[in-house]
Amino acid sequence: MLCSAAGEKSALLWSMRSYTLIRKLEGHQNSVVSCDFSPDSALLVTASYDACVIMWDPYTGEQLRTLRHDPLHSALDYGTDIHASSLRSVCFSPEGLYLATVADDRLLRIWALELRTPVAFAPMTNGLCCVYFPHGGFIATGTRDGHVQFWTAPRVLSSLKHLCRKALRTFLTTYQVLALPIPKKMKEFLTYRTF
Length: 195
Fold this sequence. Notes:
By secondary structure, the protein is mainly beta. The chain contains three helices and 14 strands. Keywords: Ubl conjugation pathway, WD repeat.
């Protein structure tokens, strides 16, 4: 699959086998500007000017979680400027346990997937994009004035449970997982309905 975000309120999922549209992911209230698949391709995140990150199951089109990118009023005061926390970029960490986001509120945020609040912040100006180092531990951010900044990111040792899920989801779709003769709680975990 390929996901495209073209500045509309939706993201488009495309089949790379048939080069056709699979589905339109709708749920944002403003332009979708960034998207990224998890390392096992079982999740897709989209970021929008509506200050939300939506986590999707790309196989079913189901919205699994919404992360609200609220400005930190103690650090910055934007008054009534609703565009102050417009998102610019989102990316998954290499192990698939964290997300990084960049927004117009001048902060890089790092989110743990199982939480709905950021676990780390870093101040930045004119943020435009972010990407994790392929082996983890670092995030690079690009700015609108052409600079690149590097940040230390949390390093984690993935649990055996997560490594098993990641290995299975690398080659099983959501529908294939749901068809397995395993307990419901296990299916929910393997399809990221629970963490």
